[in-house]
Amino acid sequence: MNKFIVVLIGLMMSWVMYPAYAEDSILPKLKMKISNTLKNKHFALCIAQNCYAIASPSQVINLEEGNIDSIVMANMDNMQMYTQTLPPSCKIAVKNNQTLTVSGRVVAQNENVYLNDLSCSVVDGV
Q1: Could you give the CA distance from residue 50 to residue 30 in angstroms, rounded to a whole number?
Q2: What is the pLDDT of residues 21-41, one digit of tens each?
Q3: What is 3-65 written as a DSSP string?
């Protein structure tokens, strides 16, 4: 139950955390190129304590500026949280006017869900 509350609050905060005075055009962006191989399961990607539903690869979401120090997968069906091992490409800082692209494939092994082939890239511009 506590994990459900954490994920729910994270999802809600990701929608309202951005200051009203900040223009959306300068905020860092998050683009997910994540394929979900587990059909009928719903996942969220949690970065810097904010969770984002894994949806269409063309979806671009506002992101908070800062260092990427953790990425967690959240199973929205059972509220299970899975910490990801970060490859060097994901241990980065994201600044305004940059786009972070997170790529990978959701897979399950021995009751653990993780992003296979997890990689990150940052480009200037949105």
Answers
A1: 12
A2: 446 678 899 998 888 767 777
A3: HHHHHHHHHHHHHH-S-TTS-TTTS-EEEEEEEE-STT--EEEEETTEEEE---TT-EEE--S
What CA–CA distance (Å, rounded) separates 36 from 40?
Answer: 9
* Residue 58 in this model has a pLDDT that exceeds 90: no
Of 125, 110, 102, the C-alpha closest to 44 is: 102
Q: How many CB atoms lie within 10 A of CB 29?
A: 20
Query: Could you tell me which of 57, 63, 50 has the C-alpha nearest to residue 106?
Result: 57
Q: Are 44 and 54 in contact (CB under 8 A)?
A: yes
Quick one: pLDDT at residue 20? Answer: 47
Three-state DSSP at 89 gives helix
Residue with tokens 């005075």: 21
Helix (H, G, I), strand (E, B) or coil at 72: strand
